[in-house]
Amino acid sequence: MGRELASLDRDVGEIAARQHGVITTRQLVAAGIGTSGIAKRVGRGSLHRIHRGVYAVGHRAPSREREWMAAVLACGEGAALSHRSAAAHWGLLPAAHGPVDVAVPSQVGRSRRAGIRVHRPRALGRELVVLRNKIPVTTPARTLADLQGDVPQWLWRKAVRQAEFKKLALGPGFESDGTRSDLERDFLRLCRRIGVPAPEVNVRVGGWTVDFLWRRQRVAVETDFYDYHRGRVAFQDDHRRDLALRGHGLDVRRYSEEQLNERPGEVAADLRAALAAGSEV
After folding, report:
1. Which H helix or E strand runs over 29?
2. Which residues of 32-46 are buried (b: 16+ CB within 10 A; e: fewer)?
3. pLDDT digits 0-9 by tens, 109-133
């Protein structure tokens, strides 16, 4: 009997290992563990209930992937991570606190589950869902379509730019200028307005990604949000980056959000001077 129980628990562990440490009641029953067996394992702490019909195996320690996987499994066959949660899984936006977003393909089943925000799109065909790190999730294009109107417009634009930067397949309807933030887009518009040559946008130089690069003039520009560049660590990182870029022969210019918004004329004059000096080399 002990050997049989050990074999059952091993099978359960193997299933959970493929699902970020979680398993459904249906899978437990299929593996040979009935209602009483589930209750005993819950009692001794080898199973931990996350949602109705979904258990963590072995320990309670949470992870973002386990939380997402458990929510998708709790919503049944054909369900997929969607909206803000899908955007976080694709690396387009930071993970948000609160319920996990899950899309389900039909109008049947439970409409509410604790810790899950259930979405019922009119269509959720197989072509709109893929596996990413073993978790069913809406495609990048569908994720962005779902996000529009669900989050503030500035946050949606940030997600689109991040998808473009990651070179994710988006299909028609998503035009890219290569920028990753509204500040970068504002700077690019300034460049067009003052008539300087178009820079390369978000390109790798050595081990660093440069916001804007004029390769022939050997000028690099970094645009800085105060919130992202304050503090000792950010200060040291910025100087380390600038030193490395100068080692590649680049003249590095940094413009802040405040400079671009309040003193665009000064930024334009400084940029023109840097490009002119670079053209003379």
Report:
1. helix 25-30
2. ebeeebbeebeeeeb
3. 556 778 999 999 877 888 899 999 9
